[in-house]
Write a structure and sequence with these properties.
- The structure is a single chain.
- The chain is an alpha+beta fold.
- The chain has 2 domains: 1-30; 34-184, Immunoglobulin-like, CATH 2.60.40.
- 30% of the residues lie in helices and 29% in strands.
- The chain is built from 6 helices and 9 strands.
- It has helices spanning 2-29, 34-38, 109-112, 124-128, 165-173, 181-184; strands at residues 47-49, 67-75, 81-86, 92-98, 103-108, 116-122, 143-145, 150-158, 176-179.
- The strands form 2 sheets. It has a 5-stranded antiparallel beta sheet with strand order 1-2-8-4-5.
């Protein structure tokens, strides 16, 4: 009886280890991640609106149909990125993800406190190269450090009613994500 319990315990332990290894390795080996699926339709360093999610057409999993969505596939190898996202009347959020889908920063219209979300995205090396400007304080410039050179920025604007979706989409269409010429110098 004890022998069977030991075999059962060993099998359970081995199954747990195999499961844990598979869960940790599969995301790194997946070839059809969000960054790759968006490559044909979303150019690098450009905000691209996403189509409304339908059961047959979902670019990013778990998209809420009450939100207008847009993405920016960024590449920081040519310099820091400046993101400007005008706020929609209801709610606007901006989330940052690494190439592998790890979320590392998010901001919404409540915490932005202005009429638009404006920030600079750069690597730690690019930030260390910035000159110390005495006239510019930390409150004047929001800088987000990216842990990787490539990744995704996902912008969402809420349309509380279906009739307000064009207004939410218009706010996202005015967003920009481009290499910041000022921060390059």
């Amino acid at each position: 009886m004890i022998r069977w319990l030991l075999w059962l315990l060993a099998g359970t332990l081995l199954g747990g280890i195999v499961h844990l290894v598979a869960v940790l390795i599969l995301p790194r080996t997946a070839t059809q991640d969000a960054y790759s699926r968006l490559a044909p339709t979303a150019p690098v360093n450009v905000v691209t609106p996403l189509p409304e999610p339908t059961p047959q057409n979902v670019v990013i999993p778990f998209m809420d149909p009450a939100f207008a969505s847009a993405v920016c596939r960024y590449d920081l190898s040519s310099g820091p990125i400046k993101l400007v996202a005008p706020l929609s009347p209801a709610y606007t959020s901006v989330s940052f993800y690494t190439r592998r889908g790890v979320a590392y920063y998010a901001i919404n219209d409540r915490s932005a406190g202005r009429r638009q979300i404006e920030l600079q995205l750069m690597t730690a090396e690019q930030r260390s190269d910035l000159p110390e400007d005495e006239d510019v304080t930390a409150a004047d410039r929001l800088i987000v450090e990216s842990p990787s050179n490539t990744g995704l920025i996902v912008l969402r604007a809420l349309a509380p009613e279906p009739g307000l979706m064009p207004i939410a989409r218009a706010a996202l269409n005015r967003a920009s994500c481009k290499v910041d010429a000022v921060a390059e110098r």
